[in-house]
Known about the structure:
The complex is a heterodimer of chains A (473) and B (322). In chain A, 53% of the residues lie in helices and 15% in strands. Chain A has helices spanning 3-44, 52-59, 79-87, 107-115, 154-165, 184-193, 228-250, 266-272, 282-296, 319-339, 350-383, 389-417, 424-457; strands at residues 66-72, 94-101, 117-119, 133-139, 145-150, 170-174, 179-180, 199-208, 213-215, 218-221, 261-265, 302-313. In chain A, the strands form two sheets. A ten-stranded mixed β-sheet of chain A has the order 3-4-5-2-1-6-11-8-12-7, with helices on both faces. In chain A, strand 1 (66-72), helix 3 (79-87) and strand 2 (94-101) form a beta-alpha-beta unit. In chain A, helix 2 (52-59) crosses helix 6, helix 9 runs parallel beside helix 10 (319-339) and helix 11 (350-383) crosses helix 13 (424-457). Chain B has helices spanning 2-33, 35-53, 67-78, 83-95, 100-105, 111-124, 127-139, 143-155, 162-168, 178-188, 192-199, 205-215, 224-230, 236-249, 255-258, 267-280, 286-292, 298-311. Chain B is mostly helical and 322 residues long. In chain B, helix 7 (127-139) packs antiparallel against helix 8 (143-155). Chain B contains 18 helices and no strands. At the A-B interface, helix 1, helix 2, helix 12 and helix 13 of A face helix 1, helix 6, helix 8, helix 10 and helix 18 of B.
Amino acid sequence: MTASELGFVGQAVLCVAWFCFAIVLLRNAVNVVQLAVAAWVFLTRVRPTPRLIDLWDRYSDIALPVSVIAPAFNEELSIVDSVRALLALEYPEHEVIVVNDGSEDRTLATLHEHFALEPVERTQIAHLQKTRILGVYRSRTHANLLVIDKENGRKADAANAGIGFARTPLVCVIDADSIIETDGLLRASEPFMFDDGSLVAVGGAIRIVNGCEIKGGSLRKIGVSRAWLPRFQVVEYLRAFLTARVANAHMNTLMLISGAFGVFRRSVLVEIGGYRHDTVGEDLELIVRIHRFMRENKRHYTIDFVPEIVCWTEAPTTWGGLRNQRARWQQGALETLIEHRRMIGNPRYGRIGVFAMPKIILEDVVGPPVELLGYLVIPAAWFFGVLDPLSAAAYFCITILFGTALSIGTLALEEAQLRRTPTAGDLMRIAVAAIVENVGYRQANLLFRWIGIKRHFRRQTAWSPVPRVGFGN
Amino acid sequence: MLSREFIEISVLFAVAMAIALGALILRRWRDELRADARAAKARLVTKAYLQRVGGAHEDIASKIVDPAMRLTAVSHLLALLRGAERAKLIALAEADGLLRRPLANIGSWLVARRVAAVRVLHQFATPTCLSTLRRAMATDQSLTVRVDAALALADLGRLPPPRATTAMLNIGQRGTTRLDIALFRALAIDHGPELRAMLAERIPHALRAVIIEALGWSNDISVVPLLERAAGFDHAEIRAAALRAAARIGHPAVAKWIIPMLEDPAAIVRIQAVNSCAVLGLRSAVPDLRARLEDPVLWVRLRAQEALEQLAPPQDASARTG
């Protein structure tokens, strides 16, 4: 059909269709570049010291002390195991600071019972939290365990409280229900050994613990969940951590260190005021603010990512939980972009402003709703004869087929370089998930992001729960 | 027209990725099928080396020629054996040609491969390995490789003298890292005189601080007067380094100049002076430490409080402020 035959509506639909096409193509181009860069990085990088004993040999005398900060809210069932696992981390000098964020259950009482807590006077170095500190306790049985009891203020506030009490040069902020591998802290501190003072943060890979065998708060055996939803998320997390983060860190444009695990220079966190309380995407916002602060103050800095550092976390097992999580992430991304909008496209912020921020807009703001719109507009345009069938087919190829290819490519990268999937059978199961996720799950996620966008503009800031099954023993 | 190209590209990309993953899955499956057999071979290789170390002439695993498997077995045994047995194992590994590949990889174009080679050579530490490591430290284009070689040599007690190490690793011309500190500490015992001689030269402040701190690891109490002079330097980081070194040396003579440094104008020096008093157990510093509880800088007050908890009796509650 020619433009004159289409009429105004037809032309408008066609324009929308091609716009959707262009955006998806652009996203795919970015993802392919990330995959290629990640593959190159894995191929050429110097691998971290492989054995724990070598790490210990090399760095035990010079490793910087670390405070592990674990905000906890209603964790009575798992807190003892989690804290024991944190205390057992292989590291020359580390302190565990558990921040009880106004739990309504017996989290604090459980800590008292199992760790013989006693009140202690401990000056808070920096008051970063917005709520009141109700008590500070030291364990009589574990000298490096500190428990902070405070009013509820959500995770960011709890993390800030912990950062304020930390006295070590480095802090490691985690989720209380995350499982760090025993060498996680040592591996995270390794980049700081080669650092001349400019390294401000190190992130690690987050992997899905669903299907794994956990005992006493520690990972005993890696497994892959039989359920589809966690398996889809395994693929997603691999894409995020093994391609995007690796590539972005290599290009000095790493914009996110997961709240489930990150090691930071304490002084920088205090300088920038810690996490923000008024956002649901505090982890993204923190890193963006670090970039902004360092660049505005013209300080040389780096943010690193080490894929060998692995922190295991539970993925939502219900569609409702997944929806809440993804909507929250989307809200967080929007809040961050709006808060730091002056950085977008601004050469003053170097490659962060010129490339990284626009990339977030493409991948997280414009891309998802546009792709979703495309799933509606393209078939409609074809049905009404506005769009030729080949173009309609092309759209589904560049979304579903290309997306599948990216997922499979990521999985191949993981197997070639890290080999953390236990067996060939598990690899096959994840590979099948990598194919199936693009038909249904991918589209559902786009819808959840759309929900997040709506929640943002409706200013719905309540933390929607993500039901947890909990780690079984 | 472009639509056809996009479809083709998508299909090709998907097929390429599927082939790559398929090959990797097959490789994994093959490895799993052969896992038991491979484990048995590895045990046989390990047993063979142990027997040969024990004096056997025959290599019962002679048919297993996989150098990677042999190298893994030897690496594992190296962590367990000591003395003459270890030396014999290394000689056997060399005779079996296991070091050929790592020695060749030192010249690889890939930095990662050179570093991996350095790590293997570090384990074996034969004369050839040591000379190769020294050459890598001196001449490799990549600072990463040179530092890794330096760490290996330091662990083996074969680090080049301080001036050479400084030049090879560009220490003083770039930001100082914790690894630099570790390397100088390793040099301190055997190269104290040269380190002291370097202090008489015009060197960057950062390098001077590293050297002064390293002298604390020299186990040589004759450095104490030098540390005292460094404590009067007009650069705060150097004064702080002198305090750290003094705490490490642990000689009672340092007390007379450490305690006055509790009044130093620079906060980092006062903090270090507090730390040093605590490490040295200087009860005579308690009154001055109590004065630091009113220090304008929070970190000084906190460290003073911690030091007093250690040095002053716990029931002395009047000391607890901050």
